[in-house]
Amino acid sequence: MSANPTAIEAHGVYKRFKTGRTHIEVLKRVDFDARHGEVTMVMGPSGSGKSTLVAALSGLLKPDEGQVRALDTDIWSLRSGKLDRFRLDHCGFIFQGFNLFSALTALQQVEIILKHQGHSKSVAREKAALALDEVGLGKRLHQRPAELSGGEKQRVAIARALAKDPRLVFADEPTSALDGENGQIVIRLLQRAAKQHGAAVICVTHDPRLEAYADRIIHLEDGQILEDRRAAEPAQSAADRRPEPALLGA
Amino acid sequence: MSLALATLIHEWRRYTAAVVALAFSGLLILAQVGMFVGIVKGVTATIDRSRADLMILPAKMESLINSGGGNLPGRLQPQIYMHPDVAEVASWDIEGGRWVNRPPEGQKAVTTYVNIYMVDTRPNAVTLPVDYSEQVRQALMEPYAVAIDETQLKRLGVKLGDSASLNGKTVRVRAVLTGYPNINNAAVVASRDTIRLLGFMADESKTGPLMVRLKDPARAEIVRDQLNANANGAYRAWTREELRKADEGALMGEQIIGIFIGFSVFLGFLIGVGITSQTLRGAILSSIKEFASLRALGVSMGALRLIVMELSIWVGLVGLVATGLLTFGIYLLAANGGLPMGFPTPWVIGVSILLIAISCASGLLALGILKKSQPADLLR
Asked: Distance (Å, rounded) from C-alpha A142 to C-alpha B265?
């Protein structure tokens, strides 16, 4: 496991927010790293700074201090246009809300990103169909969000994030709007992105059930890392447990 | 299908307000233009439907609007006949006189100024409009007979068979016309002989403009150029179409009409931009999270702005179609009431450009709202 190359390395990440006259320190000089092929869970109570950490690592929110190297690029030294391009090429995001355009079919939701990446129409369509097939929605390509269940919507969002084969995948509470069964499907898909596609998956959650699928668990509290441990049970066995095809086809 | 177009189609209800605002902005202008051009059509209907291929006007006249026919020297008529392509030449005139009707006992009399349009009653005369029926032609042959468009009967206080006083002489309404409305001036039609009997055209040395019929109408432009080459500043020859356009242009160039339409353009722009930009802002705001997730996945702000601009142009195009439908509806309504309307191509193009400009300006105003698409806000 430890042979996996480092995907993200952050040093001294510091961020504070202004509320009224005082400042709240959300991240207190955090050091962090994540590796390719691993699911890294960031856990902690709400207000612990885990979402802010992910925002800083993924190029969405600039930290006040500190350095983030992702894929050997110092992302916060990039100009905003270059940073957009970096995210377009390398980052996948999965949010708590699904954020799908109500006017677009599942296929179009995924295609739109691939087209912006510069793929031709036909290639974008092909890759989008493949990604949706991989999340078990091969038969629902032409449904709009209104015709999909919550779990299916999240899977469309996952297909949208993974279709471009990102090296870095960020997920923020991806299962909190889903029931247990759909939550399991989602976390397995994230795990597959790490194991089969070699992505570094960084998943923020406070759902203890997901711990079983993590390779590494980082506990954050009050803007500081309290604990950083390898999963007690290797993630392998979690993978062994998957009776997937039946579930995915659902 | 693009995101913008798919959104417009799928959420059309959301955009209805903008489309309706655009449609009414366009209609506000086009209906006025249509009405003013309709006035010109009313004024020049007798020429438009005459058998003339060319019109000869005094050299410095730019149109028939507000200047009547003007005067040409009487010797010009034989001179035009000299051209080998000319089949027929006739002078044509618009005179004006005082009209007083003969109301039934106890009602007030209508006293008004009327234009008197001249026609020749000989079959196939160059000045006789092609759509006059044989009945109308024969009726006008009677001395002191006049014909009146159906839309003018009420205004002049007469009906078929009534008599009235025109320039102090008694005339009789012997025919009712359709398709010759004139909302500018009251108008009647009379034969050349009747007009002479009423005391007009006494001076033989002068005539009104000349109507010219050619042996081959296809040669109108060639003959016009040849006649103009020999004019020596005494006259100017126009093709019928050319004169119609000049009349239209002259009316639309009138200051008061310019003010009317200019104000409508201003108002239409203001209302259109106000409503359309608010609609677009609301629509964008409602999918701001979706836009933010695109931002997170690396789609640039510029690309999002393009999506918004594309959306506003689509809204503009739909508004344009709606304008077309509404204007057509108004046109049908007016035609039903016997009122002609005209929509010159330059104005239609101008209004189309205006509507697209309104929707683009609205799109630009709505762009600011995209700043709210902060992907970091999705991580909560």
From this structure: 44
